[in-house]
Specification:
8 helices, mainly alpha
Length: about 260
């Protein structure tokens, strides 16, 4: 093709048709420019199609991750609600001695001991550079703040974990027998039903009940126990509220993801 155009130019020069030569040259330049523009357009179209395919893959992966995060968070919220419910029941036993029942007290004590932490899948798109592929600005903004919002929720969970390990459990060890409480917890599957891992691979050990005297009246009548129970209730309630805020954000992200994927 280039040889063909060159031959035409040479013929026009040889025939001394300068005017026609310039017109032809200009036309040839225009054709070259148009060809370049078409090539750029095709390249842009291919690049856009490639990025669109990458975006859909990222959106699908994010939807899978956030569905998993939502399911896990729902389980952790349910666990904390059981802790709060048991703390409230123990307050009733503190206030009304006539309703006290050892089996029930042991059961509710067992449900105040656990702590659960939300460990979500975190895909930091900003670090990987893939965030730029997402076109929806609202979704992009929510994903950007996602990591910091997890940190706020984790802080409340760690607060209860530290208090539980350093104050609450040591107090129970001093004034009661944890062996019986642990046995009740295993029997009632207090934490097992909230495990994310395969429950078939989770071992449970039957340690039986304590052979020593367990004076639940002495425990419930301890003034300090009421304070520890208040801390258990308040910290878990605050953690639930933070978790519900985080849950709302996850649902919002999932709604945007579904909307983008279904376009």
């Amino acid at each position: 093709m280039i040889k063909f155009f060159r031959q035409i130019r040479q013929n026009l020069i040889m025939e001394n048709k300068t005017s026609k030569y310039f017109k032809y040259a200009i036309g040839e330049i225009i054709l070259v420019v148009i060809g370049i523009l078409i090539a750029l357009q095709i390249n842009n179209w291919n690049e856009n199609r490639k990025q669109s395919k990458q975006e859909r893959a990222i959106l699908s992966q994010l939807r899978f991750e956030f569905i998993s995060n939502l399911n896990q968070l729902n389980q952790k919220i349910s666990s904390k609600k059981e802790t709060v419910k048991s703390a409230l029941q123990l307050f009733k036993y503190i206030d009304f001695e006539e309703f006290r029942n050892k089996d029930s007290i042991d059961y509710h004590l067992a449900r105040t001991i656990p702590f659960t932490t939300f460990d979500p899948i975190v895909n930091d798109l900003a670090v990987s550079g893939e965030l730029r592929l997402i076109k929806n600005d609202s979704l992009k903004q929510k994903l950007t703040y996602w990591t910091s919002e997890i940190a706020d929720n984790r802080e409340d969970e760690i607060t209860w974990k530290d208090y539980r390990e350093n104050k609450y459990v040591p107090f129970l060890i001093k004034h009661y027998q944890l062996r019986t409480i642990r046995s009740i917890a295993d029997k009632a599957n207090v934490l097992g039903k909230y495990l994310i891992e395969d429950k078939k691979n989770t071992k449970s050990y039957k340690i039986g009940k304590s052979k020593y005297i367990e004076d639940y009246n002495s425990l419930l009548n301890q003034p300090d126990y009421e304070d520890h129970l208040e801390r258990c209730l308040t910290m878990n309630m605050h953690s639930i509220n933070q978790s519900l805020i985080l849950r709302k954000k996850i649902v919002e992200i999932l709604d945007l993801l579904n909307s983008e994927i279904n376009k």
